[in-house]
Amino acid sequence: MSCNNIHYRAVVIGASAGGLAAVGAILAELKSTFCIPILLAQHISPHVESHLATHFAAKTALAVKEAEDKDPIKRGSLYIAPSNYHLLVGFDGCTALSIDPPVNYSRPSIDVLFESAADYFGNELIGIILSGANSDGAAGLKKIKQRGGLTVVQSLDSAEVKTMPQAAIEAANADHILSLKDIGHFLNTICEC
């Protein structure tokens, strides 16, 4: 899994309002050979059963599943935070679920996922912030940047809701600000398995 002479081991994506379409568009662009694991925190109502795994499985060749506690993070897989749980990367490199209080009014919280992933993967992590209506993810993306990871933010003109990308751009000095249609292509370009 080499990417421009850097060995990236995971991608984390955070999205909120407008995120279903945004994540779907990225997944649809990924080549069938894209095998870096992806972990997704998509804000959803805590009061409804999530069907995100079924929704996204139709758009990608990745193995898609709702994350469970202690899932080994495997190549070629997409792990989705369950409704009303924080998704984290544990110190053992497996997924972890938490019912700790919401962060930025959100559970799952993008910051929680990004910060735990940055602690585990360090400079071998790619963080992506997409459309959304609050500032969740900005602090997490900043931590990824501080740990030497690669940071990507959806461009404001391509975001359905600009608040989250704007906050991330201001907080993290993102390495790349890309239109939605370019993010999947960018991942394919820099990452080969």
TrEMBL record:
**Which controlled-vocabulary keywords does the entry list?**
Chemotaxis, Hydrolase, Membrane, Transmembrane, Transmembrane helix
| EC numbers for this chain | 3.1.1.61
Q: Does the keyword Kinase apply?
A: no
Catalytic activity entry: [protein]-L-glutamate 5-O-methyl ester + H2O = L-glutamyl-[protein] + methanol + H(+)
Q: Which GO terms describe its cellular component?
A: cytoplasm
Cross-referenced Pfam families, in alphabetical order? CheB_methylest
* Domain of life of the source: Bacteria
Q: Report the residue ranges that make up the CheB-type methylesterase domain in this protein.
A: 9-184
- Catalytic center residues: S16, H43, D136
Q: Output the GO biological process annotations, alphabetical, semicolon-separated.
A: chemotaxis
The portions of this protein that span the membrane are: 6-28
Name this polypeptide is given = protein-glutamate methylesterase
GO MF assignments: phosphorelay response regulator activity; protein-glutamate methylesterase activity
